[in-house]
Specification:
Length: about 250
């Protein structure tokens, strides 16, 4: 497994000790049972969140092979408007994107929840085996459309080359985002697995201008999923938005 998930931290400003510590965690485990709800509610999370008035976010995420378990698991980011208290499925409007396995292999996806249409989710296609085998850095971006304020543009690309893999748009989703989340979501009760994944180059977008996160946000780790800031790599300790990790189970 270590050979399959060679991560290149130098591009992100992390040195050789990263490899040693990552190797210790990549062994993972399987077969754990957990209580993470149904397909529609009461999921478990390993996330970091930032609050404010963002109009978008961007991040880079290592591609890893996910095992769905009896419902699903994903690594992703959300742009959320919590119009009242709740969790990422209820009490909010949002747009999200990342990679997921819902029983059909590891795939790119995006989804949104709007007042007019409710929740809609779109599978975009499988994550390339070559990207999974090297834990390639994949860049994700959600930002408000510059001409239509109720539309949100979703872009997925390869970080190293800038090659755009998918461009999508969530239309008819009027919202005033107040939260960015990044991390892992888990639904079901057994057998999901997700190798160690990293979120880096974390940025908030305000009216088209992107800036690195400089605060450590609020971390939630339901164990599973496991999540947190990598050793000495929180945003307050770095100049590139920090290095957040997730794994399960």
């Amino acid at each position: 497994m270590i050979a399959r998930h060679r991560i290149n931290p130098r591009h992100h400003g992390f040195a050789a000790p990263f490899f040693f510590a990552a190797a210790l965690l990549l062994s993972g485990c399987g077969g754990q049972t957990y209580s993470c709800g149904t397909a529609d509610a009461n999921h478990c999370y390993g996330t970091v969140s930032w609050t404010g008035s963002p109009t978008g976010f961007s991040m880079e995420l290592t591609a890893v092979p996910l095992t769905s378990g009896d419902i699903f698991i994903d690594d992703e980011g959300w742009l959320v408007d919590y119009y009242n208290s709740g969790n990422p499925l209820y009490g909010a409007y949002w747009v999200e994107t990342g990679e997921t396995n819902q029983g059909f292999g590891t795939q790119y996806f995006w989804a949104n929840n709007s007042a007019e249409w409710g929740f809609e989710s779109y599978m975009l296609g499988p994550v390339a085996t070559s990207d999974l085998n090297t834990a390639a850095w994949i860049a994700y971006k959600i930002n408000q459309d510059p001409t239509t304020s109720s539309s949100w543009n979703v872009t997925i690309s390869r970080a190293a080359t800038g090659e755009v893999l998918y461009t999508e748009q969530a239309g008819d989703t009027p919202m005033s985002p107040n939260t960015i989340l990044a991390g892992q979501e888990l639904a079901g009760s057994q057998n999901a697995q997700a190798p160690l994944a990293f979120f880096s180059q974390n940025k908030t977008i305000h009216n088209g201008s992107a800036t690195f996160e400089t605060t450590d946000g609020s971390v939630r780790a339901d164990h599973p999923p496991n999540a947190g800031w990598w050793f000495n790599s929180a945003p307050s300790q770095t100049s590139n938005g920090g290095m957040f990790f997730t794994d399960c189970c």
